Amino acid sequence: MLAVTGANGHIGNTLVRKLLSRGENVQVLIHSNNRHALDGLEVEKLEPPMGMVIDESLPFEPYRTIGDYGRTKARASLEVLKGVKQGLDAVIVCPTAVVGPYDFKPSRMGQFLIDFVKRKLIAYIDGAFDFVDVRDVAMGHILVCEKGHIGETYILSGERITFKELMVILKDISGVEAPRLKVPIPLAMTAAIFNAMFYGIINKEPRFNKYSIRTLLSNPFISITKANSVLGYSPRPIRESLKDTIEWFKENNRI
User: Fold this and answer.
1) pLDDT tens for residues 195-209?
2) Per-residue pLDDT tens digits for 80-120
């Protein structure tokens, strides 16, 4: 048995065809997109894990971080750690994607929920991420002050959910039908370029960009073990957060 990674890419699928023509048994590791490249081929298909596990053992690496926001946070964290070595009494908290009430701006996620309920969404993309309630993040900050160890980092995550699962929950909560059109990733990335240009002209923040798409595609599994065992941190289910957020937007005439 021969294994080919990236088998649905241009080189990969051509190599698979050559191997099959030579009578080889082929096992392929594929990305979720462009599966049609292997249609009709007698291969054993495997998919990679949805994402890597992220915990506090991973270092802050600004040069590997996607997006200006993430890079500035990583650089700031490194400066805090330098300060700790010089006697600074500080800890670092790293929340995942935040959702919840009291979203006055609103945030990009908050605007997404508003658009969903107002039936302004016409499509979605594949992907997943970890979402955490802003109230749990606030409580996590308090717990870190009370129980955290100087110089340590604590991830304040919530619940990992795919965007398709998110749509199902939102439909159940709001009674609004979820969009059925799934946009291919290459098309979404292209649209993000023009989207950024358009919103730049009208001086508004775009609803989505290349950074947000790449974030969803990272599909990470984020460990809560350290914050739970050391701090007693225990976030609520994402369904509760989404329900409370939509209710808050309604009470504040955003929906």
Assistant:
1) 666 556 656 666 666
2) 999 999 999 999 999 998 999 999 989 889 999 999 999 99
Cα–Cα distance for residue pair 97/95, rounded to 1 Å: 7
Q: Are 131 and 169 in contact (CB under 8 A)?
A: no
Q: What is the CATH number of domain 53-251?
A: 3.40.50.720
Tell me what pLDDT residue 244 has.
Answer: 97
Q: Cα(120)–Cα(123) distance, rounded to whole angstroms?
A: 9
User: What is the spatial distance between Cα 234 and Cα 156, in angstroms, rounded to a whole number?
Assistant: 9
d(CA 105, CA 101): 11
Would you say 244 and 136 are in contact if contact means Cβ atoms under 8 Å apart?
no
Burial of 225 (0-12, 13-18, 19+ CB in 10 A): exposed
Query: Does the pTM of the predicted model rise above 0.85?
Result: no
* Dist. CA 129–CA 117, nearest whole Å: 21
Single-letter amino acid code for the residue at 210? K
**Tokens representing 133?**
């309630």
Where do the structural domains in the chain lie, given as residue ranges? 2-46, 53-251
Q: Is 93 helix (H, G, I), strand (E, B) or coil?
A: strand
Chain position carrying tokens 């439909």:
171
